[in-house]
Automatic annotation (TrEMBL):
Family, similarity comment: Belongs to the small heat shock protein (HSP20) family.
Protein name: HSP20 family protein
Domain SHSP: 24-136
Gene3D superfamilies referenced in this protein's UniProt entry, alphabetically: 2.60.40.790
Organism: Saccharothrix longispora
InterPro entries assigned to the protein according to its UniProt record, in alphabetical order: A-crystallin/Hsp20_dom (IPR002068), HSP20-like_chaperone (IPR008978), Small_HSP (IPR031107)
Any Pfam family hit: HSP20
Length: 145
């Protein structure tokens, strides 16, 4: 269904945590994601707390789905003296390579309470179907494929 393409994501995250000490800039980690099949659709959920809906972009080119979101500061940084700053700001991006069994033309997206939910239908050609088997003795019989 969904193809994973970044085997070094966890290693990259650990290296960022190890090498970025207090006061140093580090690239924000990618957005956490859950993906599962529910009936005739594939569901992907992204955690994007603090990101307004108008700061989220979804693009599909060929079978590559790109999710891009930007978390902006909710205050003017020149008017405050930060004491603790642990919430990452900036642009978050994630690419998913969709398999041929998914219908990328009919993706639905909803955003509620900081969770972006994508629903991708399973393509008709990938759904189970019955195949008729011919037999000289008993005639035609259908079986599940």
């Amino acid at each position: 269904m969904l193809m994973r393409t970044d085997p070094f994501r966890e290693l990259d995250r650990l290296a960022q945590q190890f090498f970025s000490g207090p006061g140093t800039w580090s690239r924000p980690t990618s957005m956490p994601m859950d993906a599962y099949r529910a009936g005739d659709e594939f569901v992907v959920e992204f955690d994007l707390p603090g990101v307004p809906a108008d700061a989220i972009e979804l693009d599909v080119e060929r079978n590559v789905l790109t999710v891009k979101a930007e978390r902006r500061p909710n205050r003017r940084t020149d008017e405050v003296e930060m004491q603790v700053s642990e919430r990452p700001l900036g642009v978050f991006s994630r690419q998913l390579f969709l398999g041929d069994t998914l219908d990328a033309e009919h993706i639905r997206a909803d955003y509620d309470s900081g969770v972006l939910t994508l629903r991708i239908p399973i393509a008709e050609k990938a759904k189970p179907r019955r195949i008729a088997i011919g037999n000289a003795d008993t005639g035609r019989k259908e079986i599940d494929a």
